[in-house]
Amino acid sequence: MTALDARPDTSTVLRFPQGFRWGTATAAYQIEGAAAEDGRTPSVWDTFSRTPGKVRNGDTGDIAADHYHRLDEDIALMRRLGVTDYRFSIAWPRVVPTGSGPVNAKGLDFYRRLVDGLLESGIRPVATLYHWDLPQELETVSDSGSAAGGGWTERETAYRFAEYAGVMADALGDRVATWTTLNEPWCAAFLGYGNGVHAPGRTDALASLRAAHHLNLAHGLAARVLRGALPASAEVSLTLNLHAVRALSESPEDRDAARRIDAVGNRIFLDPVFHGRLPEDLVRDTAGITDWSFVEDGDLATAAAPIDSLGINYYSPAVVAAGASESPSPWAGAERHVRFEPAPGPRTAMDWPVDADGLYELLVRLRDELPGVPLVVTENGAAYDDYADPSGNVKDPERVDYLHAHLAAVHRALADGADVRGYFLWSLLDNFEWAYGYSKRFGIVHVDFATQRRTLKDSARWYAEVIARGGLGA
Ligand code: FCB
Q1: 319 φ, ψ (degrees, to nearest 5)
Q2: Is 88 a pocket residue for ligand 1 (Cβ < 6 Å)?
């Protein structure tokens, strides 16, 4: 038996379809470490995390979970869990250190070893090209005013991204099953350039809207490059953190608040990528910020390059009402019209509400709005204050409850006709949780950051059982 202590249980109550993909997910900057090794150059996250006051405790990803040096151990862990798929991201500054130009062979070697190790273990590699670690060189505006710089606010960055996608497709296209262009472009655009809580930390509503558009463009350009270079069997996808938005009341004002967040949180990506257009209400809502003249002819058609599946990351829903948001707000054009209300119910260590219905709502919405587009839950999970007890166990019953409820929601969506192909648990390992540093633990494997010792939490054993039995027990 490959999966850990798993005894297939005949009393399965919720069985998932044959071939359903059971995965775990991570991201390069959150786990790799080796930030200055083998030719990697700084990303915007290296710069941001070194800026005083930006990341809790001054934490950085310099060492993180030291995955760069513990690759084999981490693949062995996944093998013990019995996962069918592993979603990881590639650090652009490791592969193309200056963001454009020479390719770094040592960087590519690392991902070759990862992919080969996964394949030898019977695990399908699912690679994300961009999980927020933009090469710093592409962000910094040089004194000479060269074309580079400005990050996602400039369209040049989208073309550099497509070149990098081509490099990766040439290097690993024959071995990676699924290529995801971007992870959560909403966070990259609106947390990175809008309220500044993520790298590069800018607070400029216009910059955030420009970034969102250039991310859509980058996605479309890269999807075309990938399609041209990859074998027909490889899948091309995009992962969005769609917001499950609920109006606090049925009043027209509260419902309008929900519409606004849906426009600038969801449809700003869904409409260009699946329909080649911008939402009209978004253009109206943001008229005080921009006339969108940075959208050039053909850009939206480019963004709408066909893809094979849509990834959805889901953690919790948002409840909104008419009002005003805190400043600086990531919600360009909605700042003075929307306030966020605490959702009821239990909360995780992130203070995020636990509400699995939100995941169900998103999946059935996409079933209706995007018929024929296969869906994959590419992230779902929860942070709790886990610790290893004196006998070395990590008991995390709240996480097991959270995961159970969310998998049950996926099952319910499947039963109601949503075409959900897989579920990737965030995360395999405790890691660098962006602005929260190492203070939040999302892993099903506990990492002692002083020793880098890995310990399976109870949730890891539970997940192994779920995978072995192909569903949820009683
Ligand atoms: C998502 C990110 C991921 C992780 C989880 C908790 O927004 O994609 O890297 O930080 O949140």
Answers
A1: -110, 125
A2: no
